[in-house]
Write a structure and sequence with these properties.
37% helix, disordered C terminus
């Protein structure tokens, strides 16, 4: 089923891709109508798949068989894997073999470097979970973005996103941003009909 539609959706085009975090079929339909280019789902992706045609990143436990039936990509949290057991490498390889894109969530530059060494992911999900008191979530993501090698896709995961933050991420070269709530306010003008 999956054919790496997620990475294509966020890589194509000139600007930053808005990726809507959705909980149910109604929010998926709304996000699609407001201009989202992909969806992030924590619950069952099958219900979302039936409601929207957008690519789905499944942000849930690692059931790759279920993911490949309803999602286009899965997320692996780098911090959840022990370096010694090889589980990250195994799941990453299995996801790719099933035709799924695989986004690896990193929280600091050390995790990013180790993820590159261990699985060399095509997609990084940049999380500001590990930040100092004097840093904003956007600052952390921008610092991580600067460490992402050319040719890799980077998605910002900010809990609250403003139009100004989206513009700043776009100027810095971020490929996508996960949005919770209203998508329309963060999406640029719709393309002119020809």
């Amino acid at each position: 089923m999956a054919q790496r539609r997620f990475s294509h959706a966020i890589a194509e085009g000139d600007g930053i891709s808005v990726i809507a975090s959705v909980e149910d079929a109604d929010s998926a339909r709304t996000a699609e109508s407001e201009g989202a280019e992909a969806l992030v789902v924590r619950g069952d992706p099958a219900a979302i798949r039936a409601a929207a045609a957008l690519p789905i990143l499944w942000r849930a436990p690692y059931d790759l068989e279920r993911a490949s039936a309803s999602a286009d990509a899965v997320m692996l949290v780098f911090d959840a894997f022990d370096e010694e057991d090889g589980k990250l490498e195994e799941l990453h390889q299995q996801a790719l073999e099933r035709g799924l894109d695989c986004a690896v969530e990193v929280r600091d530059e050390e995790e990013l470097e180790q993820a590159l060494e261990r699985v060399d992911p095509e997609i990084f999900l940049l999380s500001p979970a590990e930040r100092e008191d004097d840093e904003t979530a956007l600052d952390v993501v921008l610092d991580l973005l600067a460490a992402v090698p050319a040719g890799k896709l980077a998605i910002a995961d900010l809990s609250l996103t403003t139009p100004d933050e989206v513009e700043e991420l776009e100027r810095a070269g971020c490929d996508g941003v996960i949005v919770r709530g209203q998508v329309a306010a963060l999406v640029g003008e719709p393309p002119a009909e020809v």
